[in-house]
Write a structure and sequence with these properties.
Elements: H1 2-22, H2 26-30, E1 33-42, E2 49-53, H3 55-69, E3 72-76, E4 83-85, E5 88-96, E6 100-109, E7 112-123, H4 149-159, E8 168-171, H5 175-186, E9 191-194, H6 202-205, H7 237-250, E10 255-256, E11 259-267, E12 272-279, E13 282-286, E14 290-293, E15 315-318, E16 332-336, H8 340-351, E17 355-360, E18 365-368, H9 369-377, H10 383-387, H11 392-400, H12 404-421, H13 423-431, H14 444-452, E19 456-459, H15 462-467, E20 472-475, E21 478-481, E22 485-488, E23 493-495, E24 498-501, H16 509-516, H17 518-524, E25 557-559, H18 564-582
Parallel strand pairs: 1-7, 8-9, 8-14, 9-10, 14-25, 15-24, 16-17, 16-24, 17-20, 18-19
Antiparallel strand pairs: 1-2, 3-5, 4-5, 5-6, 6-7, 11-12, 12-13, 21-22, 22-23
Helix pairs in contact: 5-18, 9-12, 12-14, 16-17
């Protein structure tokens, strides 16, 4: 009876809300929100990825977008039932606009909207060919000189980029470019992905030998094709590389390997890019309408410039170039850095009998993998979640439904519980001299990742080596190198045959500077971060990831990246934005982000 009552009350609320919107009564709709409210929209209303915060921002967005969006048919989603817990009613919802069908999640507090997530599920008349609409494949009947499936694919591959131009060009063929390419393929958007490496997946294969995913398998599926039930929880890098290579083939992507983009210029008059690429020694000029940089937020290496680096007689490598531990047995290695890559590399070097020292220059957040899976991810991304009926798609939307402005409030108690559960572990690290932190506001790993993309390690074993003194630890700043090693600010000299700089990566707009010039990179501005005014994430508050998966200040230029989860989830919304533009649909953007920081 209670469930029926909650369902009826929720549908009545949606009916009233929908009627106000259809009538253009923005004042009435505004009053259905809490004072402290958040509406996160993924494309449907704003043609942007945008969160409006507070009733006044809701009102402003509706004043700009309601007349063109024309939302209607608000319902509790099919086969779903609202729930009530602690005074909060939560419901999956569906709705439609003039051009799209939407899906979302609403939370009601005291009979008014506290949080609202609206997402574009599909464009009307441009649905993906799936389910009952899946392609037949076979060609029944008979026809003269008709081509086979293989011949059609080969013809397309030979013509696209030469006889015909792609609508979209994706630069970068890692998981981001591949996921987006798959989405665009299903939407019928002619697309080429260019990748400098020999094979799809090489961006993983070419990393340091011991690299494995630190995120669990349930968090890392690609669109359309989930990992098998027998796939390991934490996949080794080469296994991921092989999966990506297979995926590009079976998803029929136009994927150009051994191809490097040399230059890109945009012609505002024609709305067209001119991109010059070197395809295995052949210069090819491409003329796409849309250009996507999927070069990875962990791709533009940040190499320090310490005095004396030119004097050092040993080998120096950035972590992205580290060739593995094999040849360093019995040698002295200094690893500058204390985040994920630094820990992984130190552990692998120790396993191969190197004498390895980690130099920690700033505090690091550490969380044990098992504890993170149990407390941080278990409700959404785990076998337990799957058994309870949680799907990847639902998990993604639940996570997306928590506005960034208040996400830290949900994270703080989770990380407090992890800290308490693993107290002995942290005591051991601090006794060893390790400099720990929990984020600027104790909100832990996810907020650090979203704000700055760095500053943490998911422990899969290296921390115990530090606790036990097997991996040596020195805290301090590198002041210079000499012929034989690294000198710290306390005067310590660390002898080294190899120095690995696990010093992270620069903003993705560095790739734009390389390809289009610094002026274009400055017009785009900094990529990543929320404007939280915390370490390495300067304000003002943005409320969303800067310049990711949405329109930018550079027309027809898009940035796409992040981890496997983000590549999967946000590729849907970027693909729909690109498809709508290809089809000439009106896409009035609300809330285009201003540029506050250049890098």
């Amino acid at each position: 009876m209670l469930d029926t009552t909650v369902t009826d009350e929720t549908q009545t609320f949606l009916d009233t809300f929908g009627a106000a919107l259809e009538a253009g009564d923005i004042a009435a709709a505004k009053e259905m929100f809490q004072e402290d409210c958040y509406w996160r929209d993924l494309v449907t209303f704003t043609w942007n990825i945008k969160t409006v915060e507070g009733k006044d921002q809701v009102e402003d967005m509706l004043k700009h977008q309601l007349s063109t969006t024309k939302p209607r048919n608000w319902k509790i989603a099919e086969d779903e039932m609202p729930t009530e817990d602690g005074g909060i009613t939560t419901a999956w919802i569906s709705f439609e606009t003039d051009v799209a069908r939407g899906y979302g999640l609403i939370r009601l507090k005291d009979g008014k909207i506290w949080t609202l997530l609206t997402t574009m599920a599909e464009l009307k008349g441009h649905e993906e060919p799936a389910g009952f609409a899946r392609p037949l494949g076979a060609k029944h009947g008979a026809g003269k000189a008709r081509m086979t499936w293989k011949e059609e694919l080969e013809k397309e591959a030979s013509e696209l980029g030469y006889d015909t131009q792609p609508y979209c060009l994706i630069i970068g063929g890692g998981q981001g470019g591949i996921a987006l390419g798959a989405r665009l393929r299903q939407l019928g958007v002619p697309t080429i992905i260019v990748e400098k490496n020999e094979r799809p997946g090489d961006s993983w294969r070419n990393r340091y030998k011991s690299l494995c995913l630190h995120d669990p398998v349930w968090y890392d599926h690609l669109p359309y094709m989930k990992f098998p039930d027998t796939w390991p929880v934490f996949a080794p890098k080469d296994k991921i590389g092989d999966w990506l290579e297979m995926y590009t083939k079976v998803m029929e992507l136009n994927y150009w390997t051994r191809t490097t983009a040399k230059s890109a210029e945009y012609d505002a008059a024609s709305g067209e890019w001119t991109v010059v690429v070197d395809r295995d020694g052949e210069e090819v000029v491409l003329k796409p309408k849309q250009l996507v940089m999927a070069t990875g937020m962990s791709g533009k290496k940040r190499m320090p410039d310490f005095p004396g680096m030119d004097k050092f007689k040993g080998v120096q490598q950035h972590s992205s170039e580290h060739d593995g531990p094999d040849q360093w047995s019995g040698k002295k290695v200094v690893v500058v850095g204390s985040n994920n890559s630094a820990h992984d590399i130190c552990a692998a070097l120790w396993e191969h009998d190197a004498d390895v020292t980690m130099v920690q220059r700033s505090s690091t957040h550490i969380v044990r993998s098992d504890t993170l899976m149990e407390i941080g991810l278990g409700d959404l991304y785990s076998e337990r979640a799957v058994k309870s009926g949680m799907t990847t798609e639902k998990a993604d939307l639940i996570f997306a439904s928590l506005p960034y402005a208040i996400l830290h409030e949900f994270q703080i108690p989770a990380y407090a519980a992890m800290k308490e559960q693993d107290k002995d572990f942290y005591d051991g690290l601090e006794k060893a001299g390790f400099w720990l932190d929990w984020g600027d506001d104790d909100s832990g790993l996810f907020m650090k990742y979203l704000r700055r993309g760095s500053g943490y390690y998911i422990d899969v074993g290296a921390s115990q080596l530090i606790i036990d003194g097997e991996v040596k630890l020195k805290r301090g700043q590198v002041v210079e190198l000499d012929e034989t090693g690294v000198i710290l600010d306390d005067g310590t000299h660390l002898d080294a045959d190899l120095v690995v700089y696990a010093t992270g990566y620069n903003s993705m707009n560095g790739w734009v500077a390389d390809l289009m010039g610094q002026d274009m990179a400055d017009k785009l501005g900094k990529v990543w971060g929320l404007g939280s005014d915390t370490t390495k994430d300067p304000g003002p508050w943005e409320g969303e990831q800067r310049n990711m998966w949405k329109p930018t200040q550079v027309p027809n230029l898009w940035m796409h990246g992040g981890n496997l989860h983000q590549s999967r989830h946000y590729s849907q919304f970027l693909a729909l934005q690109l498809k709508a533009r290809m089809e000439g649909l009106p896409t009035p953007v609300y809330g285009l982000q201003e540029v506050h920081h250049l890098s």
